Amino acid sequence: MKLRIGIDVGGTFTDVTAFDEDLGDVTVIRKYLSNRAEPMLVMDTIMKDLQTEFGKDAVSLILHGSTAALNTLLEDNGVRVGLLTTAGFRDVYEMGRQWRGGDVFNLYAPAPKMLLSRDRIHEVRERLAFDGTVIEPLQRDDVVAAVEKLQAQQVEAIAVALLFAYANAGHEQEIARIIEEVAPGMYVSLSSEVNPEWREYERTASTVANAYIGPPAARYLKDLETLSLGYFPGARVLMMKSDGGAASSRMLSRTPIQTVMSGPVAGTIGSRYLGSAKGVANLITFDVGGTSTDMAVVPGQLLHKSEVSVGRHPIRTHAVDIDTVGAGGGSLASIQLGGVLKVGPESAGSNPGPACYMRGGTHPTLTDALVVLGHLNQHALLEGKMAISRDASYQAVEEHVARPLGMSVHEAAWGILRVLTTNVVIAMRTISVERGYDPREFALVPFGGMGPTTAARIAAELGINRILIPRDPGTFSAYGMLVSDVQQERSLTRITRMESTSCDELNAFYRDMEAIVLNDLVNENIPREHLTTVRHAGMRYAGQSYEVDVTVPALNGPQDLETLQQRFHEAHHRRYGHMAQQQLVEIVNFQVTGVGQIPKPAMKTFEIAQNVTPAPFETRDAWFGPQASVPTPVYRRNDLYPGTRLIGPLIVEERTSTTVVYPGQHVEVDTFCNMLVTEIGA
């Protein structure tokens, strides 16, 4: 037996999925309560359970997705950081950018947060030209003096962000060597490694953030690998990255900022894989966990972005384009000044959790509202493994929402669901309609513990007619890890006008980066026959201050250059609604992604059951509006065979999630055992 293990650490639950390479099917699906204070205790329990059941030689690959780096930034519990920069540029990090984005008219908009004070920013004499030419050599004495001052200030990590270091990393690398001499063991974060692209502020902020999370993230990665290999000595341990690939702790220890979106990305990878198997190109992913909702538009391929914002920290890193809102099963409901019902972003998490968990929580959450509405089992979750209290949910909703607003408990619970739904719909319109995508042309793929429970409301408000619910949706992100590849990236900033360049010049840039990423992957023991590269270019119209990511075709002649420009025009029009084909076009950033392909587990198919109508195991009252309940049949998902067709309203319960099908909808089970929910008559 050879197992691949996918482990997704969420704010409330840690999900585990194991794929048996010999059987060609998923054999283990489990959920554990997360422990944000001691995550390795949960990991130790998981590994011990798996070793006891399958033996220490059974596991070949462990893929891990975690919010460790993300939470370090959000909770402001990183290490004490210092910064070295070029003389005369000490204030770049504090000045930031004038642009406020959506807060442009807000006089009180908060500035980006700084992770260190100005007294820990030190200048060193050196200077590079924009093309990397050395104008002034690095002064070693400045570096030594600065490092000694930072040691006296008790810093644990040093960020180095020099002017134009993206064009020539020599001075930063020399500083790293000097730091190792003066302060052995000091964690060093170099901008030429973290984000070797132009824009001084973003590059500096990202390098500081990388240093801030570096020591705890590096320890987490090392502890995870040590723990995993202790139980399974023959396994390879990989961590999910923000870009949708995976990498070893060795590859990520110097740039853990690449894992800041490690948790949410795996479900998007799994959704694309599911869509490919189903022949459905356009997808909107909808991952609802205990603390947050992650969503992404997938128009046939993953969309990426070069910058993310985490707790008012701007970070430049290549990431799958995912938006997150504070809306999940543990989202707290409360009455604000003026009698306004608010749901989220604060969450009850896993401790104490929703009131119904009986772990000390007394305030109502979305989970409690759904228990009151009859959408969730009123006695137990996880197929009976987690007992819940319907009375506790009633009491919490009544005391904190219904009574203050002068309404019934069921009206209050319906209001909680509606408010959370509205928050999600607004965010989903932003990533779809406002970017030129019509949600009606997409299928919604809900997963996570609460995704299938709330998907029907979301789809109705967006006009989406198809809801594709995968097998075991509550652990689908862990499954997504099993269909990921090992990836490594390199980027280069060279402003290049398309009308004055050639295929030979562009190919030279790409070949140098391809050689580096392929060598990195070979060092990860990926066979060369499994290695491929993908070329991207950050392109813009001359004079613009932003770029659009474009996939680069094979560059063999003038026609290929025209194809590349046309791809840019189309991408610009798709993103911004217009193009200017007469304007000069520039490439700003060159990027190569090296992919070490891992064989994917095929999605198992099942025969269509003929003339089999499953029977519900119970009928309970459920509310699909604020006024009256409806007797609703409840089915076990294991009883729904391929070919099963049922008309709502109905509820489908399984070990990892609950699916709610509203009146006017019907559900059909396909040959992969996915459920497709559509409007009747559509």
Explain the overall architecture.
The mean pLDDT is 90. The longest helix is centred in the first third of the chain and has 32 residues, at 200-231. The chain is globular and about 80 Å long. The protein is built from 16 helices and 34 strands. It has six domains: 3-73 and 218-249, ATPase, nucleotide binding domain (Nucleotidyltransferase, domain 5, 2-Layer Sandwich), CATH 3.30.420; 77-211; 263-326 and 422-481, ATPase, nucleotide binding domain (Nucleotidyltransferase, domain 5, 2-Layer Sandwich); 331-419, no CATH class; 490-503 and 523-596, no CATH class; 618-679, no CATH class. α10 (366-372) crosses α11 (390-405) and α12 (409-431) crosses α13.
Quick summary:
This protein is α+β, with helices and mostly antiparallel strands and 682 residues long. The protein contains 16 helices and 34 strands. Helices cover 31% and strands 29% of the residues.
Search tags:
682 residues; alpha+beta; Nucleotidyltransferase, domain 5; 6 domains; six-stranded mixed sheet; eight-stranded mixed sheet; 16 helices
Class by helix and strand content?
alpha+beta
Q: Which spans of ≥5 residues are poorly predicted at pLDDT below 50?
A: none
Shape: globular
Provide the β-strand percentage band. 25-35%
**Oligomeric state, counting identical vs distinct chains:** single chain
Tally of separate helices: 16
Query: Helix amount, in percent?
Result: 25-40%
Radius of gyration: 26 Å
Number of domains: 6
The residue-averaged pLDDT reads 90
Q: How many strand units?
A: 34
Distance between the termini: 45 Å
Major β-sheet profile: 8 strands, mixed
Please give the order of strands in the largest beta sheet. Answer: 17-14-13-22-23-34-33-30
